[in-house]
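Extended Data, panel c. Modelled sequence:
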Amino acid sequence: MIRIRTALRYLTLCAVLVASQVAALDVKIRSTLDNEDLNADLEAASLLVALQTGEPKNSQDVLAAAKADYQRLVTALYRYGHYAPVVTIQLDGREAAGISPINPPASIRAATISVRPGPAFRFGRATIAPVALDTELPEDFRPGAIARVDILRDTAAAGIDGWRAKGYAKARVSDQRITARHEQAQLDAQIALDPGPQLRFGRLIITGNEDVRTRRVEKIAGLPTGKVFSPEEIDRATTRLRRTGTFRVVALTEAEEIGPNNTIDVTAQVVEAPPRRIGFGAEISSLEGLGLSAFWLHRNLLGGAERFRIEGDVSGIGGQSGGTDYRIGVRIDRPATFNEDTDFFIATELERLDEVNFQSKQFSLEAGIKRYATEKRTYTFGLGFRTADTTDAFGTRSYSILTAPASAVFDYRNDRLSATEGYYAELSLTPFYSLRGTENGLRTYADIRGYKSVGRDDRLTFALRGQLGSVTGPGLNTAPADFLFYSGGGGTVRGQEYQSLGVDLGGGNEVGGRSFLGLSGEIRLKTGDKLSVAGFYDLGYIGPEAFPDGSTGEWHSGAGVGIRYDTGIGPIRLDVGLPVSGPGDNNGFEVYIGIGQAF
């Protein structure tokens, strides 16, 4: 008899477990307020809504989710200023709050959530004090504005940040009085701040470094010991350490306690990245052929976060745009050489170019500095030597020059590989002094790009690019052949053959121009989470004059379409371009494949 009872209990338990499985849970949310954002947030906050997807859940899981939803939904309503809501949750017609979790229903098939938000409370009184000079408080923290919880939190944070920006690192909320007056649907908020003493930077304590010398970490961080505390200086020090590429993790934290003489110590915890790194890349074009590149990098050559990089590339493999080009370069960068925001570099390069209209063998050596004015603005200046043997329509020539290249980069794009907002501008000036084979002169190049997205979720992006180049001083027949400009190909006018536009000397002879103007427009439409389509139109001008006047030289253009597939390392790009106008045979098409947008 005992065995029979045990077996019956086991069978009953199995039957309850099987019966408690939910084949499909139907959840409905009913709100009396017509607010799309609020209703969307209610759905996002509900665990019951989340249970509709995935594997079937038993009734205990559904009941637990329903009981948790009361608080989650009320919290969501508070964010919109509704402080007197009524939330009911019925499971198959029974209020979830009244169902015992010990004896849940055998199954639950439907859940109905009813929400009566009640009135949106508005601020009656809204005060915060004391407030530091120049503190920017949220505009909606004022009498009459909707009293959202987020506004209260943001106001307190803004008040603390205002004091911290003045050096009061330990500013805090000392008291807050929040009173809800339900009859008037008003919320009174009084926030009191305690700035504490104004502090100065104390010691920078370095932890976690193994191969990088502690003194060099301090020099790179550049935290101004003895100066008035500033959160911006903390952020700058963090950025300086990260941009070396030597550290995998960088975290700066302020000491909990105030030090002697109102100072505050800062601890920099770093984790070094593996010292060596290798990489490679590839790009293919139907005309220019296959291009391969590779590099070897040491992130900490001498123990001071010096970067030593050897790189090389081979391009034009199997292409129809001249022969195969080779390049190898070596570069050393030393961060924080003259000050925390100025790096020193030495670079040398050996290159052989076999282009459509000229051939060149050249060697260059350059040393200089790179100045980080801000995270988005950098300036570079160097002194260099360059020597080359070139062959073009004017014959074979050799030259040697001294250079003083300078450049400025303003990078305000939201994404370097696939920008949808912002702009990018680069200007480079290379004065050169002739030692032999040419004349003194100046090479100038500018590249400006802008991006704007519109529509739902910014799915439609307009991208524009303008390029301008100029060589002044020597004439066409004496200028360094590799300093002159050509147009056509993936970097200038897609659809046109690579370097197909230059200065026509007659008799089938062509050389580069002393002036270049390029204009490109692209429309990108995101059709899915990862897939995008694009249409583009490119225009290029090459002239013999030092500055493009639009009439002395020649124009050509190309247009086409492309697709993009987003990956973790940037979008994979496939463009098909057709020639539209210009000298020569405007037939056929060109195909370009690469990683990252065209610009």
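The first strand starts at residue 26 and ends at 31. This feature is highlighted in the accompanying rendering.
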